[in-house]
Amino acid sequence: MRTSTKKVVLAAALAGLLLPLGACSAQSSADDGTSPIKVGVIGDFSAGSADMGVAMRQGVEMAADEFNADGGVDGREVELVFYDDEGDAQKATTGAQHLADREKVTAVLGNPNTGTAIATVKVTQARGVPQIVPIAQSPEVMEGDTEYTFRTSATNPMDIAVLVEYAKSQGWEKIGLLHDTSAYGLSGVDLIESQVAESGLDLVATERYEVGAVDLTPQALKLKNAGADAVVMWSLGADGARFALNTDGMGWDVPLLGGRGLLFNIFGELAGAAGEGTYATGGFDITKPEGAAFAEMMQDTFSTTDSIDFAVLGYDAASVLFDAMTRVGADGATDRDKVRDAIEETTDFPTVHGQEGASISFGPDDHEGASESAVVVVTYGPDGWSTN
Amino acid sequence: METFIQLTLVGLTTGTIYGIVALGFSIIYASSSILNFAQGDFVMVGGMTGALIYGTTQNYLLAALGALVAGVAIAGVVYFAAVKPLLARRASAIVIVMATLALAIVIEAVAQHLFGPSIRHLPPIVSGGSVQILGAAVGIQNLMVLAITIPLVVVLWLYLYRTRSGLDVRAVGVDRGAAELLGVRTRRITMGGFLVSGLLGALAGFLLTPILGATPTMGLSYSVTGFIAAVVGGIANPFAALAGGVVVGLLEVYVSGYISSSFTEVAVFLMLPIALLLRPDGFFVPKVARKR
Amino acid sequence: MNSKNLTQPRMIQNWIIAAILIALAVVPLFADSFTVRMATLAGIGSILALSLNLLYGFAGQISFGHGGFYALGAYGAALVAQNLVSDLAVAIPIAVIATIIIASLIGAPVLRLRDHFLGLATLAVGLVIYTVLNQWTDLTGGPSGMSIPTTALFGIELDSTIYHLLVIVILAVVVIGITTLVNSKVGWALRALKADEAAAASVGINVAKYKIIAFGISAGIAALGGTLYAFLDNYIAPETFGIHASIMILTMVVVGGLGSNLGAVIGGAFFISLPMLFIEVQEYQHVIYGAVLLLFILFLPGGIAGIRLRRS
Asked: Contact A251/B137, CB-based, under 8 Å?
């Protein structure tokens, strides 16, 4: 009998394990006007796209440190609360709910990936938490109810429009498309296909590969045999570099274009001279004074400027948020609706990312803050990625 | 014809890369009948350590040595933390497999913390991109991989088939119990298998990083590719496993080149159950009557 | 040979399961919506663990790819919700039955393999399913995922509390169903399979047929879990169903305790709610997760449920 009682007690204890952190809710958020303002930061910090997520996080951290050093919102500091969604929509939902309901953050910054962004937006929108999306570029993120959702990054259609325009201007009529099977690679395909068609160019072949594929020569051969004048690589840096090497090795001097996924140091490290002339849409311009200053700050803080294109997006999204909070003032800075309204009123807020004079503006019907000026066109040369 | 040559050369060199991973994996299986889920992490640790050391010291030789040491060390951890205790209590094969999986998870997580998420790079042994062979382009580093793997394989063959201790190793692979009865020091051999496999895995990682870059999360996919290659070739025979890698590499390029690159990934994954069903011992191993 | 394999599950275990289910069911009474969702997820986790436990714990067939059936259930539900009607009453039967059919077709050849060969083959199956779902963008939306418009049952919309209760009820039904199955003639055949396949065949048990039955039912239950998940968050994306999902389900069963429904319920609930417990140390969650799994394998091979069994 005693053993059975022991078991039942053990069972009850175990069942209790499931509830403990649930029963106690976070401290009441009686706003005294001086305590720190909590901001949630959610992204992939440890799985397949951690390099983007961590970079975004670094940008946000830099913005927060700077902002707090300058006095914050009339003396109120901003406190960042992080959640790692590992690129998984289910975990993103958990994280968004944790940030909104438990941590009671005033606003959320995130996510870098499409799937997790969609999941997070669902939650923040339902709970009336203003969210700024710093990186995720697919149109789907902003479909549906987005009263509380704002985006500061340029969208995939914008990037692709620039690429297609450039291809057209160079007289390349037959376009080949190469893409990987990650979320990033797959997200661009439909858009590229439709935009190429719309602009009167001819998409002659589409080839795909798995991230980390050792050799892309088979894909290159197919694209070459299809008669491509230029190849759009919707790829990540390492794979794009390998493709550049493969086409070089084949003796096929085809112009290469790509998206932001290419903009990692590994591209140059792997491709070397073969990557020169590759044309990509990005968001960072180091020749801009703000850009140079940002690069210096990043190097000082994190001893690296790899993935600076993603860090700068995190930085700008955070800056827009902090600016909105400042406009609300210390007393109302934790009021989600007031912050939301202030974000929506953002007009011509200058950003570090983008071309000279690029800025973010929102309006009641326009929560896509970036315009074409947010897209920076870069070419790969002996000194790395630089603006032409 | 030109396309065929180009594709075949690519398939051969890519396949050798898969093969070298499968080789390490099958050495463990041959000497212990254990499926090592952490094999891909041996590759990862070798690549990341090499890249890290090179990044700080600019000394290629030091980086290579560091990579090899790290590989052996990690393999040692897997052996002593999980395999040895479980073998001692005669745990079932599945349990040991899951233990290696658990360790793979831990190793990956620790690597994330130590190295950060950025993809790291090593310069190739010989720079220059690629050379032309039979009118097709072959990457120089890929040739390096071949150049290093072939003598290694010869040495391994000589050891396994021409030395007494090599015979012992093969005996353990065939029937551990019987080998023990005959006085073979099976635990020693299993440990040796792990350490050698760690060394080879790390070497593979060091050779591959100049081609692919290294990230902490790359281990699992290398493990999967390694499994597929080893199973196709011959899971208990290192040389067959190597050949299996080549087959996978060739299949990949032929599907990409002649059918559609949309099906390549699925085709490679499907090779695993197909090989298991048709020739569970591997296509490059003589068919042996198995006790059912 | 452990004769425990052929004995009845203990009554006391069932009482404990009932206690846990009741504890889960009453969560909405005093917890916030975050906790309610975690509790619902815990219930779904238990269903997933139970599905693998049926196959591996009772019938002795390992699967490293159960995430694939979880995925089929979720995506099946999403396809039904988008193209037919967004209603559990329609989605559950269709998704579950479709998955059972697919699993049976796959199982027929694959189940001829044993032990780690079967494990590898099922690993490949899980990977193939994930790859297809992720890349067949036209059908599944690819990485952008699919949404499930409404959570309704027979036309009645369900709020999160009622949905939570529904999931717990379904979990109870699954437990009862599996227990009944395991104690039935079919169940005896399955457990005989696990104990000694050759012996089972020699007494006339159609080994192949029963393996496929176990595999199919197990896949169906996993798919049920997937459908319930789809209607919980109303949005699914491929990453949730990759190889990590398969590993997670396997971990649940191992840590919970193989061959024990109670173990599966505990393991399932525990691992899904783990992120909640880990929030303070989220940075180290993977290290802790792997270490916990390893420790269980090394020192508690019977799992959590095994602890109790040994004391009696």
From this structure: yes
- Among residues A228, A255, A282, the one where a domain terminates is A282
Pair of tokens at residue B186: 């099976």
SS3 C299: helix
Q: What is the ipTM of this complex?
A: 0.89
Query: Nearest 10 degrees: CA dihedral of B208, B209, B212, B216?
Result: 120
Q: What is the domain extent for residue A185? A: 157-282
Quote the domain boundaries for residue C100: 8-311
CB distance B122 to B50 below 8 Å: yes
C120 touches chain B (CB under 8 A): yes
Mean pLDDT of B201-225: 90
* Region at A48 (left for phi over 0; alpha for psi -120 to 50; beta for the rest): alpha
d(CA C273, CA C275): 6
Radius of gyration of chain A (CA): 23
Q: Which domain holds residue B208?
A: 32-220+233-238
What does the pLDDT average to over C194-206? 82
Q: Indicate the residue of B118, B130, B262 with minimum beta-carbon distance to A307.
A: B118
Answer whether A82 touches C (CB < 8 Å): yes
| B250 domain-assigned | no
DSSP state at residue A148: T
- Check CB contact of A247 with chain B, cutoff 8 Å: no
Determine the residue of chain A that is closest to C33 in CA distance.
A101
Both A65 and A129 in one domain: the answer is: yes
CATH number at residue A70: 3.40.50.2300
Write down the pLDDT at residue B146: 84
Distances (CA, A) of A220 to B73, B208, C15: 40, 21, 63
The whole-number average pLDDT for the span A168-185 is 92
- Whether residue A23 is contained in a domain is answered as no
Q: Which residue has the higher pLDDT, A104 or A7?
A: A104
Contact B213 A266 (CB under 8 A): yes
Q: What are the tokens at A134? A: 């710093």
Whether C41 shows a pLDDT value over 70: the answer reads yes
Of the candidates B61, B237, B283, B242, the residue with the CA atom closest to the CA atom of residue B152: B242
Residue type for position A147: E
Q: Strands A359-360 and A349-350, how do they pair?
A: antiparallel
Q: Give the C-alpha separation, C230 to B207, whole Å.
A: 43
Q: Tell me the C-alpha distance between B19 and B146, whole Å.
A: 10
A82 has which bridge partners? Answer: A41
Angle in degrees, 0-180, between the axes of helices B238-254 and B219-233, rounded to the nearest 10: 110
Looking at beta carbons, which residues of chain B come within 8 Å of A270? 121, 210-211, 213
Residue of C nearest to A190 (CA): C137
Write out residues 149-208 of C within 8 Å (CB-CB) of B: 198
C281: buried, middle or exposed (CB in 10 Å: 19+, 13-18, 0-12)?
Answer: exposed
Domain count, chain B: 1
| Chain B hits for A53, Cβ within 8 Å | 117
Q: Exposed, middle or buried, A370 (CB in 10 Å: 0-12/13-18/19+)? A: buried
- Within this chain, do residues A296 and A257 fall inside the same structural domain, yes or no? no
What is the pTM (predicted TM-score) of this model? 0.90
* Residue range B174-198: mean pLDDT, rounded: 85
- Count of domains forming chain A: 2
Domain identity same for A295 and A180: no
pLDDT of residue A388: 66
A83 within domain boundaries = yes
d(CA C247, CA A152): 37
| Cα–Cα distance for residue pair A190/C64, rounded to 1 Å | 33
Are A180 and A267 contained in the same domain?
Answer: yes
A51 interfaces chain C, CB cutoff of 8 Å: no
Q: Which of helix, strand or coil describes residue A227?
A: coil
Residue A97 covered by a domain = yes
- CA quadruple A39, A45, A47, A51: dihedral sign: positive
Is A59 in the same domain as A205? no
